[in-house]
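New to this. Help decode the following:
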Amino acid sequence: MSDEQQVPGTADGTGVESGGVHRAGFVALVGRPNVGKSTLTNALVGEKVAITSTKPQTTRRAIRGIVTREDSQIILVDTPGVHRPRTLLGERLNDLVRETLGEVDVVGFCLPADQKIGPGDRFIAEDLVEMRTGRRGPRVVAIVTKIDLVGRDVLAEHLMNVDQLMDFDEIVPISAVKGEQIDVLMDVVTRQLPEGPQLYPDDQLTEETRDDRISELIREAALEGVRDELPHSIAVVVEEVVEVDPDGDAFTPVEPGTGRLVVRATLFVERDSQKGIIIGRGGSRLKEVGSRARSEINALLGRKVHLDLRVKVAKEWQRDPKQLGRLGF
């Protein structure tokens, strides 16, 4: 970013204060669906801890990514996109975001540079303003994402419009894909955190369990190439991760590290017609999903796995409280 692209109130790229102060705290990334929160989380952490997709509402949990630096530890909370809910699942995701915002030290409000500020952004801004009225609410940093997709004039106008949205503590334009201003954003966020000791070990990058990360990688693979309402209807549950005898019974467990690692998981959809789409003709589509997911799971676990996928129908699970509970919502 050149000086010409800065506007009043935006970060100037200076580092954190000197003097040996250590800061630590929680930073929620919030915004409408598809504004780049998960991509930014991964860029800040330096490793894939949240799945990404062009499909809206990909994130369904508050996923924590941990950035440990010499002067600070930033615990990022990647939240679901705030949207007008049409199902019980949608209502629960919006409630999750609101609960998260009340528990963090800083909110990173993501506003994409390639989209004009809309009603959804104003709705979030109103919530944040209300949170900061009458009591100490979280600091709020506007993060203008996807600056690589627009020209300088468009970006400058967008930054001015963001500045009018609410009283932000700072405004930082970034591109997570290109890595532009990521270090600046970390410095800005660090300045907003309270002083405190490190909360997690140096080598911990996320609070997500192994099975949760595996299920998300499978869902990410399943989201590719599907359209209409189907992405929202897909849920994944890891049934078991087990070592089996490579030369004997495929269901007989053996000592860890001595056999073949098998991941058994179930993809749930809401209707029989959706099941057919996921499986594909002769199982071709499910094989593609398995191949794509297996590559990611191999990288996550550091070894080759055998992925056993099943597809089941859980009718209208997004609207059924009992089904939502079984699927972890």
In short: The longest helix spans residues 284-301. Confidence is low (pLDDT under 50) at residues 1-18. The radius of gyration is 21 Å. Residues 28 and 77 are 5 Å apart (CA to CA).
